Amino acid sequence: MPDYIRIRKSANLAQGPIRPEDTVAAHRDHLDWLTRAMAEPWAGQRIVVTHHAPSPAVAGTINGLSAAFASDLDTWIGKHRPDGWLFGHTHRLLDATVHGVPVTNTSLGYPDEVEPGQEAERLLRGLIDDRGIRTGG
Fold first, then answer.
1. Are residues 69 and 6 part of one domain?
2. Which of 45, 56, 126, 137 could share a disulfide with 106, CB 3.0–4.6 Å?
3. Are residues 73 and 126 in the same domain?
4. pLDDT tens for the chain, residues 1 to 137
């Protein structure tokens, strides 16, 4: 992953580039925060929005780099049951239902990845209304 060469721990270049264990620690910290937030009382919909995909179900073809684009939070999703999960990053317009929870990719992608005339459909993916989340289907 080029990220582990290019991204630094801080502006202090002497600290060196991030390491996989740094990103794992950040992931755990953020997931702990999200778990606590999900436990708070809330009367409305609970929609999780992340950059990273939360499930292998929306990762596309699984290979050695899949973990850089999609986590395996299927068990977490089943336990905490958000009303939906929106994510980006992969540019793959893959949607899934994980334990009854819609997981929707809202990536626009690069300009050459959007078919002419499909811009509006791409922009409306993930639109949230009183019926839930709009997906590509």
1. no
2. 126
3. yes
4. 778 888 887 767 677 888 989 989 999 999 999 999 999 999 989 999 999 999 999 988 878 777 778 899 999 999 999 999 999 888 777 889 999 999 998 887 777 887 888 777 777 776 776 666 766 65
